[in-house]
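Troubleshooting log. The previous structure file for this entry was overwritten by mistake, so regenerating from the original sequence record. Sequence copied from the archived sheet and checked twice against the printout by T.R.
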Amino acid sequence: MNMSPANKADKKATVDAAAWMFNVVTSVGIIMVNKALMATYGFSFATTLTGLHFATTTLMTTVLRWLGYIQGSHLPVSELLRFVLFANLSIVGMNVSLMWNSVGFYQIAKLSMIPVSCVLEVVLDKMRYSRDTKLSISLVLLGVAVCTVTDVSVNAKGFIAAFVAVWSTALQQYYVHFLQRKYSLGSFNLLGHTAPVQAASLLLLGPFLDYWLTNKRVDNYQYSLISVMFIILSCTIAVGTNLSQFICIGRFTAVSFQVIGHMKTILVLILGFLFFGKEGLNLHVVLGMIIAVVGMIWYGNASSKPGGKERRSPALPINKSQKTDGLSESTEIDGKV
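Regenerated output below.
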């Protein structure tokens, strides 16, 4: 039985909201767990931990493929390696940027991902934004900046690390949407292709990079039952974080993911004050939160209106063998998640 347009729109809105909530809950949850793991239990090996996250995700996709929930799909090796290069540069760049830069400049670098993602969409996808959409994005950036940016100092190597981190992250997030559209890949399928390669590369690179960043060796860490439980919990939540990121970017775009994703920044600030609070919520932080939330609501309304955000070129061609049902099946599976 065919659904009416109104019912289809309602269903899409419901699934979209569920996807965002899934991403927000898992992303905020993993930040809180990792903060406890690193601050309280001294496990400061961020790159190695990310490799463990992707190893757990690989295990999940392998089990789902064995159970028949993930169907066979094709992704060219060249596209896979390009994606993994961007993704790993993003992880390494962010870690190095945090080490070499002040917290203030690190936050500014993260905020610049939105305009960089906009540039990629305008250049590569011929996307066009209305005046209200541009202004709403600016308001979100202002609000989050007021919340998070404190002292700002930068040096040459810190700037280079931040530049690499921002552009590689924006390219990786753009590529998620690009590959799902071009090859009709669902979130599970794309994770099934990328997670094993990322896990292997990060687990090989991670211990050396972490030693360079922290001057500590992961094999010398004094593991305890509680710290191991936190590592397992972090890896478990990471499966949902990785999957929800692919679902959200696949359903929306990298820019929308970044804009509304700053709600996670606000939630992390609030939860950080509640659970790890060394200082209270001061006036300028509360003001910044209000500005950012208003900007996010404005962005949602502006970008959904006709002409608010639209592509000026035809959609990417889809492989003929997959055109009839591949995309609809992958979307249906993501919706069920």
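The first strand starts at residue 127 and ends at 129. Archived copy saved in two places this time.
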